[in-house]
Give the backbone structure.
Amino acid sequence: VGNRAPLPGEFALIRKYFAPLAAGFSGALDLEDDAATYAVPSGHELVLTADALVEGRHYLASDPADLIARKMLRVNLSDLAAKGAKPVGYLMTTALGPDIDEAWIAKFAAGLAADQSEYGISLMGGDTVATPGPTTLSVTALGIVPVGRALRRRGAKPGDRLFVSGTIGDGILGLKVLRGELLDLGSSPREALAERYHLPQPRLSLGAALLAGGDVTAAMDVSDGLVADAGHIGEASRCGLIIHADRVPLSAGAQEALAEDLDLLPVLLSGGDDYEILFTAGRGFVAPESGVPVVEIGEVVSGSGVKVLDRDRAEILLKVGGWQHF
Amino acid sequence: VGNRAPLPGEFALIRKYFAPLAAGFSGALDLEDDAATYAVPSGHELVLTADALVEGRHYLASDPADLIARKMLRVNLSDLAAKGAKPVGYLMTTALGPDIDEAWIAKFAAGLAADQSEYGISLMGGDTVATPGPTTLSVTALGIVPVGRALRRRGAKPGDRLFVSGTIGDGILGLKVLRGELLDLGSSPREALAERYHLPQPRLSLGAALLAGGDVTAAMDVSDGLVADAGHIGEASRCGLIIHADRVPLSAGAQEALAEDLDLLPVLLSGGDDYEILFTAGRGFVAPESGVPVVEIGEVVSGSGVKVLDRDRAEILLKVGGWQHF
């Protein structure tokens, strides 16, 4: 299949590139077995999340393989962060397309190794197959939380306030930079935005602190876009949300881009790939010390849907919808 | 993309077809959340296994979607069975190709529902995306075992005996039937063999009984072929195995096919897709009552590799290798 040098066989690939990624996790039995074992620490329960990525849709064939690997892990760690979970490890299946060569796999594995070390997680198992189509990656990430304590999307109540971490819109702006847009920006903000797109920062310390504080009523990570994800919290909690656009935190690069082109505002508010934590909490909430800034951007109301208001409390109608995976 | 009627959006698909599959599992939160939670019962640990399936490689685009779903689950349940695990549920990612229409998804979901009910498991989470390539499915299955008790590939010792459950070779013969071969067989054995290929029987009750008995030194399920999988046990246990070909249990259909064509013997012994349990145990082992027959087919020896002997203890050299996934 295809025009690459033939890959080593499945078992050789696993031994050479994937087994070392499981070395830190004894339950993976060096990937020599069909299944891994894992004992959840007492008083804790599992948090599980799964994602699929298709070359050409979720990343580009020309993206560096190590960055693909790291973003894949971080997107899943971001889901765990929004639950307040401590990450443990992941299972991964790879369907490798005709253009994948051994150098690609080596670089991909190096990216996984880098972020395993960064986040203290291990590969726990998986499967490696070939496909004549685009490379398709699937990850199931495992984390743990004290039993019954996971943060959830449902639970927001009218009167609660709406918060978000970090900055919003850098993901979509980074994608625009990588596509050769936003040429009026200087090279330093362009690089910073591209980096935000390639390497999200899962807000694990913040998630853990929010869970420990006990005041959060609903939480999720911003992956489909701020407005769409606020809508998800509203739907799951059966209430409405108001977002004050002028309170939404923007990075220096995003502020500069917005100053150049005011039409970017709805793009920032609806673009995806932010991987910040969006959450609601009652009146008494005080943001914890976690190294990640948190800003109040709105409130929970009765009803349904998301309203975005400008500085004068006039509604901003967004033409751009949230990201649907197809 | 493609020439089918447009699918409902991602969220609509999930609500209509996948959320009902998670209804039996409260930790999935109706798939409204990004992550599921699961509390492992006290005294137990998780067993985790993952598989990827690519249309055109692991199943045919023309295969009935409900059978694709059921085989996918059963193959993973078979991995859990060989560990002695009780299955709990699964996460699934689907990358749907251009030819998938809503009728396909409805049938696929009906197949999942049928086997969830058959095996007492639930969908726990997942992701649904589109691909321009072949449909690609990935499953992570979860089971539980008493802590530290999972059956493993390593642990066989010289002097142990080698056993296998059920019958061997029906999977590869069933595939041949579906390809229009083995036309000399009657229609009844042809149907039985095709059914074995489409619907493996994960040996969960046997796996649980083997774990409870405590005498098994190594175990795995036969998916790559009897001889190749015996080799996997040998490699993990650092020893060799002898298989007596005349003791390998064959179904009536396989016996009939072999009587017609003696050259099928190496095919039966090396074909994959049997999903029986292959295991080793010491001298005192007595097969448990589990509803699944177990036959002694060989022994563990020092050294390495797998030797297949005929009735006269002459070595049968197999030209056909085991199934590698690429």
Remarks:
- Chain A touches chain B through 69 residues (CB under 8 Å).
